[in-house]
Amino acid sequence: MVTASAERQNRPPTAQGMTMSTTSARTLSAGSAGSAGASLSVDAELETYRRELTGYCYRFLGSAFEAEDAVQETMVRAWKSYDRFEGRSSLRSWLYRIATNVCLTMADGSRRRARPMDLSSPAPAGAEPGPPLPETAWVEPMPDSRTLPADPAERAETRDSVRLALIAALQHLPPKQRAVLILREVLSWRAAGVAELLGTTVASVNSALQRARATLAAAGVTDEPPSEPLTEEHRSLLTRYLRAFEAYDMDALTSLLREDATLSMPPYGLWFRGPGDIRAWMLGPGAECEGSRLIPTEANGSLGFGQYRRAADGEGHTAWGLHVLDVRGGKIAGICVFLDTARLFPLFGLPPRLTP
Question: CATH says 13-110+164-223 is which class?
Fold first, then answer.
């Protein structure tokens, strides 16, 4: 069971990172008509919910960019219809209703996003990558700064709900079951509140939740232990990973891996399991990564790294991949290296190039 503690180019104008403050300077009276007459901007009022709505839409859609599009569409719809908001529910509930409808529309008929491990068996160490699959095939990483609460205690409770394995597992669910599971077990909404949001009954919500739980259990995601807290020991492990990778010391790097550790590299479908095959790949087809530099970041509730390989012109290093690490039992259980740096590095605030 998932819990809160365990849990484009050519894009349309509303997806260009526009904030509501650029769309209008309309103001509204804060609270009811007789409430002290203080005035707040509609834009500022709506913007306070952007981060949590982004987290909700990301869990629902499995794509950082689609989530931001969905939230922007939610904000635009809310701003346009604010005059008709009658206050019978909270502003937060009203926004979640709009966001859910946007996500349901976006998810309708779309291809299920996945991880390489969900699509095929592990490849032998000498395997060729093969053709890349389209970006719509993959669950995408997301910066913690865009989805998790700013409060450290709240962040610690919710960080497990954005791990890549869970985001991928949620894509197995029909869209309405997905909404129910996220609202009930990640965001801790009451069944009655979810029923009102979805325009259905409490019995229907409870039934959908049971079916969603069964689907996740069949996928094995509920068998996984929760991610470990970001302790000093955890950070020390990832510091050793950084040093081993930059030194390209495969003995040191593989000593940090669990026996069942995986390495995957979207947009390619191949992936490897076990320190031996990971080491062989890194010293074989992946040997051009020697001499790389890593820049720490935070992604999907864990620490990660932006990887820069030596530039072809010999001047510095150029963006190569975004490492998202899964740590369990004091060792690294998964390394997912996303290679679409043109889209992902700006999202994470990482530069495209490191100078000498």
Answer: mainly alpha
